[in-house]
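Re: Re: token formats

Sure, here are both.
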Amino acid sequence: MAGTHAKTEKTGDVVLIVMEFGSRWPACFQELLRSAPHGVVLAQDVTETSAELSARLKRRLMQLTAAEHHVCAAVLSAGHSLAHDVFVNRCLMVQALARTLTPASGRLVLAGHSQLPEAARQEIARVAATMAEHLVGGPSLVLELEPPKSGVRRAVPRPATPIAFPAIQPAERARA
């Protein structure tokens, strides 16, 4: 038929990323984007609560499903909040994403960047542990926490090769 296009299997595939306030772009997103031709990003506004972000995610998932898109992978990139309602809404977002993902091959990533405080990193791991129990038989749930960066930093970077200084001879030391 003129003007219509037959959908190929991958045409409607989507990788979805949800970015909480204070999160960073996860390293795994480029890798996941290779499995689907489309990427969709939902970023939490500074004035938006975690409950509002969760509700907006659910609406967006319904829109994608209605448009016959298939979410083949998703990333929840966590911010620094430790509030109890954030934990609950992260769990609800993981649950909503898991229900929408392709069951056999879907991949769901909980990501945390290297600058997050240790308490926030532990909270993200707690979400992963809690939700892993509920997602048995569904899409895979992966926890990707970037290693924390050390607080010790050198003011001058080390050269790649050692620098050889000429030895000072005893006669030169006396003049110096």
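Second one below.
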Amino acid sequence: MAECYFRMEDDIVKDSLKSIDFENGNLLIVGGLAVQFFGQGCLDISRRTLDLDLISQDTFSFDSFRDSFKPFMKDMKLKGYQVQAKKGNQVYSLKVMDSQNRPDSKYFFVNLEYHKDKTLNYFGPYLHKQFDHELQVPFEDGEVIFPVQSLEELAPLKVGRVRRMGKNSLYSDMFTNLETMEGLERVAKIPLESMAINIKNAQNILSVDTKNIEVKSQYKLSKDCYDLVAIAKLVSAGQYDFNFDRYNENLDFLANMRS
């Protein structure tokens, strides 16, 4: 099968989004694709992705996950896709394929993050904060509306990972002092093209060496950095009314969780 990376305007992504029962599933769009929702029609901040990440306040076993997404599988089949449910490390996944197991089949993942009791007790309070501040974001000129993670809750997660993973990398000095508008405006000047090149290089290596741990780590770091630059560009351009007080509260909240 062909490993491909998609933008949110590609059919396999749009069809997946529109087939998910967000209302009954108590689901929220998070991560890189969430950032792209806020750039629609104003800034070209999109990056290609292999997956759509979701979180839920409900708890799922793998069986209940499959049962909950049976309507999704049925709807996607009617649209010409094949779907396989898989259990991974901390995520349940739906592998969406545009044809049945042909060598040239393209695929896309819909991932639902799940927490074991121990991690849910640890991360639960921040999980609930994300739903308390979710935003209803129009898609395709308002044709449909989706629940999306707010940037004030999304950015601190990525800042934390970049600071932990990027201590000894070329990114270590780029993402300091992000607590103020001045700090974000400085980051907004970083060209996304350079970030995109790093992401593409990692994708090329991982397409032939899927177990390369060092490249996997750099790939995750590059994606987080790209998304932070994209967020900074949105805020700096006035395309998103960013609440710095809540953002900084969340930075402190997550730092205290990990201390």
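Residues 67 and 139 are 27 Å apart (CA to CA). The chain has eleven helices and eight strands.
- S.
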